[in-house]
Specification:
- The complex is a heterotrimer.
- Helices cover 36% and strands 21% of the residues of chain A.
- Chain A is of the alpha/beta class.
- In chain A, the strands form 4 sheets. Chain A has a 6-stranded mixed β-sheet, sandwiched between helices. A 6-stranded mixed β-sheet of chain A has the order 16-17-18-13-19-20, sandwiched between helices.
- In chain A, a hairpin with a 2-residue loop joins strand 14 and strand 15.
- In chain A, helix 5 crosses helix 6, helix 5 packs parallel to helix 7 and helix 13 packs parallel to helix 15.
- By secondary structure, chain B is an all-alpha fold.
- In chain B, 74% of the residues lie in helices and 0% in strands.
- Chain B contains 6 helices and no strands.
- Chain B is globular, with a radius of gyration of 16 Å.
- The relative contact order of chain B is 0.15.
- Chain C has 13 helices and 2 strands, in the order αααααββαααααααα.
- Chain C has a two-stranded antiparallel ribbon.
- In chain C, a hairpin with a 7-residue loop joins strand 1 and strand 2.
- In chain C, helix 4 runs antiparallel to helix 6 and helix 9 packs antiparallel against helix 11.
- Chain C is flat and about 70 Å long.
- The chains are: A alpha/beta, B mainly alpha, C mainly alpha.
- Chains B and C meet through helix 1, helix 2, helix 3 and helix 6 of B and helix 2, helix 4, helix 6, helix 9 and helix 10 of C.
- The structure holds adenosine-5'-triphosphate (2 copies) and magnesium ion (2 copies).
- One adenosine-5'-triphosphate sits at the interface of chains A and B.
- One adenosine-5'-triphosphate (ATP) sits at the interface of chains A and B.
Chain lengths: 546, 182, 293
């Protein structure tokens, strides 16, 4: 067919349940082999646009749709689902939730099976798809214990088996560590080179441009703010909404003449009596399985703001679970405030040490925020009066005032995150540990969150510094470590391979690469300017030097 | 999204039937392994509240599949084998509870919760009665044993759990539904 | 707390059977004992030995099963112990009424005069009941260890179930480990907030209510997951056309043999029971005799 694969003509959509439009007259056209990068903050309508392209709107989602979405010349609304499925392949954000079969082969075959194709045809397609993504070695595996990156490749293979001409990728990098993310981007690029039309939705523009998209579509509040080439830096794009390369941010800050507030880092008071001590800790999950931790030694001090970096599956979560006693060492000791965790219950340790799990949905249960926050203190058997005070205090600290009687499960993701923090605050723990506090959130959300948590605002101490003696967070986002931490733990090969100030640890790029941590533009710029700055800064702050 | 046609059986029902079954299986297994405090030979399986909830939220087919498959899976991973009449009983339990779906429009509204609980109890009665009576042929027990030894304790246990947990589940669900699509 | 199917490929007669054969055979045994209500030890014993042999032929490693056996025995104990022996209610009313020598009497609350007489017939019934139960259960007990979880859907489809129902089966298997893991994470997350499942305070109802922090998060997350899975399946054309099920299943002679055997057993039981009145419960004379003298 002569028509371009995808044409969108002033498309508008409003969900039946919503007063406002989710997206408003969007128009663009894509040629075969073209890659479009769609960026924008959470709630700006990216997924809605995607649903319009793959036909879920108007099919599954009710609402008012105006304009047209043409796939090879026919409107998606007039096509059979089966047709659409063979034209557009959609990769959802979380592969874990999109994989429907228990083993890899069946997962890839799922689509073709639904089309009722003949067996040998299906075999052919599955083999091709696996070959294309070089995952033949996974064919026998159970989907459940694949790594994040592998899961995604399998999901993608499942789409390729349908031979779509358009690939629609909705935040495909969200659940991957940087290295796997780059592998994925390389794959996307090569698929475009083969003539597939690729729509890549991603708020981490800095990473996405690695796939050399031809054009960038930037959205705010459901409307197109910018559509055009990427190299020429468009000032329409707000560096606080999406993650841009440090150079762009600096340039933009100069152009707009924003004067960023300079921040002094929290200081670690090493030397004082350590709050938590690991003494040659070994750990294995069961006698059959190999050691996950081996000879780990670690001291957490007053004032520490620690970022833990390391590859997927290295054992970061396993490490921190020892601090709160969810896991007990196989050999060696873990000491919290002078007591051996062997002799303490998790509940006892919780008095000292608060642990925030990655996904709020794993702990939120109460009908109201207030009851949610009272849960911890009640378990620790605080006095009723104190509980009231503590809850009130922690609510205002994370500025959730006014939401006390609101159902936590009804809050936005960002608010839910803050609720989980408040829950720990209310327990008056002295140390806070966060396992990947930002995973699965979009850039603007998590920078706002981390700023609120870790950034000293106008003179006063930062939230964590004011409320906790020490804070530790695991992250895959190197920039968070660069911007917020005053101490870095690099974890790999079963133990801590580097421990020290960001300025010292992070300048060794070879070491980082060895443990699948990719230096970012922000880090490079910081390292270059270090002689003049004397400390690592956020991109905005660097503008004053660059 | 949620089309309230009670007897529809499409992708939606398949997915929630399966998810309900998996959850019911996992929860029953968990309580088989770590039994809750029991009174007499009444055992309490919180899983039942989840099953009833899936019925109420997604309809009779989902309830049936979740109950039947879920109970089967639960027994299987515990290592108990397959007891068709109890699996079927559990299926009926969820199915009858599912008849209330169309009648619910607000999951946190008292009257609607009442309705759901009522249907839930109905479902438990039907399902457990079926399982207990068939046990007369399967287990070779007499009518009294079926009634007093099997039905009554099973009914009481499941009813208590449902009355306590179902409302909590429904209220929580109202919150989730409120932020459909983030 | 990881749910894992202890399935392992093994080169045994049992695992070479077509999955359908195993379901059908299982059904035959169950029907043969339940429909004509077989209780005669002369029928139960051979059938029990048959089930047992098949079970042993599956060569399931003890270490895989020792946990399971523990729960099986709990189950047996409750059914037999409580119903058959203690509350004389166990079994066809005949059991209790049979004039039968008393072995010994257990007195619970003798003051209330509640004493239980353990009679020969009760014991004998208990034995039969165990045998009967295991005969029906054994074929199913070995399934998780000897049948590839990925085959259930296909098997049901090939036995005439609809695409949708068959796939529900597969999808359920797919999600079980996921939710088991979610549950583990939730347990950890709540423990980190000082919640202790082991020592919940309050009365029974209070205890049940306090399970909410575990039940709610897992369940609610699953409802959200559902919406995404629905989209994912619609986007891959699920249910738009009659589905191809990749895996072919073929009956081999051994399958016909097993199915034949199953059907034969069923028929024999029916004929004996309804044709010749053989198969009901009874206590062999030599017992009672031997008891009396
Ligand atoms: N199923 C739905 N029903 C009602 N409103 C919805 C639905 N899905 C999304 N919305 C609303 O439409 C708007 C756009 O949401 P959308 O998911 O498209 O944004 P997004 O850019 O994908 O956000 P994110 O980056 O968090 O994925 C938001 O206000 C959202 O609350
Ligand atoms: N409950 C468990 N039982 C057995 N093995 C486990 C368990 N949890 C984790 N593991 C294994 O321990 C290793 C370390 O897991 P862990 O989650 O600590 O890594 P991680 O550094 O947190 O990875 P990620 O960055 O993906 O979160 C992995 O190989 C994982 O498979
Ligand atoms: Mg989205
Ligand atoms: Mg982790």
């Amino acid at each position: 067919m002569a028509e371009s694969p995808l044409v969108i003509e002033n498309l508008t959509f409003q969900y039946r349940t919503r007063p406002e439009k989710a997206i408003e007259n969007i128009s663009f056209e894509l040629k075969p082999g073209e890659m479009l990068l769609i960026a924008g903050s959470s709630g700006c309508g990216k997924t809605t646009l995607a649903r319009c392209i793959n036909g879920l709107i108007p099919r599954s989602y009710r609402g008012a749709r105006e304009g047209r979405v043409l796939l090879h010349g026919t409107d998606v609304a007039d096509m059979q689902i089966a047709e659409v499925a063979q034209t557009v392949g959609t990769l959802l954000q979380d592969p874990e939730r999109q994989i429907v079969a228990s083993n890899v082969y069946n997962e890839i075959a799922f689509g073709p099976e639904n089309l009722g194709l003949a067996n040998d045809e299906i075999f052919k397609r599955v083999e091709q798809a696996m070959k294309r993504l070089r995952i033949e070695y996974l064919r026998e595996r159970e989907t459940f214990n694949l790594s994040g990156g592998e899961k995604q490749k399998v999901a993608l293979a499942g789409l390729l088996a349908m031979n779509p001409s358009i690939l629609l990728l909705d935040e495909p990098l969200a659940s991957l560590d940087p290295e796997s993310a780059h592998e994925a981007l390389e794959v996307f690029r090569s698929l475009a080179d083969e003539g597939k039309t690729v729509v890549l939705i991603e708020h981490r523009v800095e990473d996405a441009i690695f796939a050399k998209p031809n054009r960038l579509l930037y959205m705010e509040a459901g409307q197109v703010k910018y559509l055009g080439a990427i190299d020429s830096l468009p000032t329409e794009i707000n560096h606080r909404e999406v993650k841009l390369p440090a150079e762009w941010v600096v340039k933009r800050v100069h152009q707009m003449g924003v004067t960023p507030k300079k921040t002094e880092p929290a200081v670690s008071e090493a030397g004082g009596t350590p709050l938590v001590v690991f003494e040659n800790v070994d750990f294995r999950y069961s006698d059959e399985t190999p050691l996950i931790l081996q000879g780990v030694n670690l001291q957490i001090h007053q004032g520490d703001l620690i970022a833990v970096l390391g590859p997927n599956g290295a054992g970061k979560s396993t490490l921190v679970k020892h601090a709160i006693g969810l896991l007990k060492p196989t050999r060696g000791r873990v000491i919290v405030e002078g007591k051996d965790t062997q002799s303490m219950s998790v509940a006892q340790i919780a008095h000292t040490l608060g642990f925030v799990f990655q996904s709020p949905t794993h702990m939120l249960y109460a009908p109201t925020v207030r009851e949610e926050l009272e849960f911890g203190p009640k378990n620790l058997e605080f006095e009723e009066v104190d509980i009231k005070k503590l809850v009130a205090a922690s609510v205002s600290t994370v500025n959730l005032k006014g939401f006390e009687e609101y159902p936590p499960l009804g809050l936005s993701f960002g608010q839910q995150k803050r609720t989980t923090i408040a829950a720990v605050l209310a327990m008056q723990s002295k140390i806070m540990i966060m396992d990947e506090p930002t995973a699965g959130q979009d850039y603007s959300n998590y920078t706002h969150f981390m700023d609120a948590m870790c950034r000293p605002m106008n003179g006063s101490k930062s939230l964590v510094a004011a409320n906790f003696n020490a804070t530790l967070f695991i992250t895959h986002d190197l920039d968070l470590a660069v911007t917020y931490a005053n101490r870095i733990l690099l974890f790999g090969d079963k133990h801590i391979v580097a421990d020290g100030r960001p300025e010292d640890v992070l300048k060794d790029f070879d070491l980082l690469m060895k443990y699948r941590v990719r230096p970012t533009s922000l880090l490079r710029m910081n390292v270059n300017l270090l002689p003049r700055t004397g400390q690592f800064l956020s991109a905005e702050e660097l503008a004053a030097y660059a | 999204m949620n089309n309230n046609s009670t007897w529809e059986f499409g992708t939606r029902q398949v997915v929630y039937g399966a998810i309900g079954a998996a959850l019911y299986g996992v929860f029953s297994w968990a309580t088989n392994i770590f039994p809750l405090p029991a009174a007499g030979n009444v055992t309490f399986r919180p899983a039942v509240a989840v099953l009833i909830f899936f019925g109420a939220a997604y309809g009779p087919w989902v309830g049936l599949l979740a109950g039947f498959i879920g109970n089967t899976l639960g027994d299987m991973i515990t290592g108990w084998g397959f007891y068709w009449n109890w699996s079927l009983g559990n299926g009926l339990m969820g199915m009858v509870a599912g008849l209330v779906m169309a009648a619910i429009n607000d999951f946190k509204a008292r009257p609607d919760i009442m309705k759901a609980v009522a249907y839930g109890l109905g479902g438990i009665a039907v399902g457990m009665l079926f399982a207990s009576l068939t046990e007369m042929f399967v287990g070779g027990i007499d009518f009294n044993t079926a009634l007093v030894g099997y039905f009554v304790p099973a009914f009481i246990g499941n009813a208590v759990v449902t009355i306590i947990l179902l409302p909590i589940l429904m209220i929580a669900f109202a919150g989730v539904a409120a932020r459909r699509g983030r | 707390m990881l749910v894992t199917w202890k399935y392992r490929p093994r080169n045994t007669f049992i695992q070479r059977l077509d999955p359908r054969t195993r379901f059908i055979f299982m059904a035959c045994i169950i029907l043969a004992l339940t429909i004509p209500e077989i209780w005669d030890y002369r029928l139960l014993l051979p059938l029990f030995l048959l089930s047992l042999t098949l079970f042993l032929m599956a060569r399931i490693e003890w270490k895989d099963m020792k946990r399971a056996w523990f729960y099986i025995f709990i189950l047996l104990f409750f059914i037999v112990g409580l119903n058959a022996l203690l509350s004389g209610r166990g079994g066809p009313s005949s059991v209790t009424n049979l004039p039968s020598p008393v072995l010994f009497t257990i007195s619970l609350w003798a003051d209330r005069g509640w004493v239980v007489q353990i009679t020969v017939s009760k014991v004998w019934f208990a034995l039969n009941q165990i045998m009967r139960m295991l005969t029906m259960a054994l074929p199913a007990i070995m399934l998780p260890y000897t049948l590839d979880p990925n085959i259930y859907g296909t098997a049901f489809k090939r036995m005439g179930a609809s695409d949708r129902v068959s796939f529900t089966m597969d999808l359920a298997f797919r999600f079980m480990p996921t939710f088991a893991r979610d549950l583990t994470i939730t347990v950890d997350a709540q423990r980190a907030r000082g919640y202790e499942v082991e020592k919940l305070k309050g009365g029974l109802f209070e205890k049940i209510r306090k399970l909410a922090p575990l039940v709610i998060p897992v369940t609610m997350q699953s409802t959200v997951t559902g919406e995404e899975v629905i989209d994912a399946m619609d986007l891959r054309a699920f249910g738009t056309a009659p589905r191809t099920w990749l895996k072919e299943l073929h009956y081999a002679p051994r399958d016909y043999f097993m199915i034949g055997l199953g059907v034969a057993i069923f028929l024999v039981c029916c004929i004996l029971k309804w044709g010749f009145g053989i198969g009901g419960f009874f206590v062999p004379d030599f017992f009672t005799n031997f008891m009396i003298n």
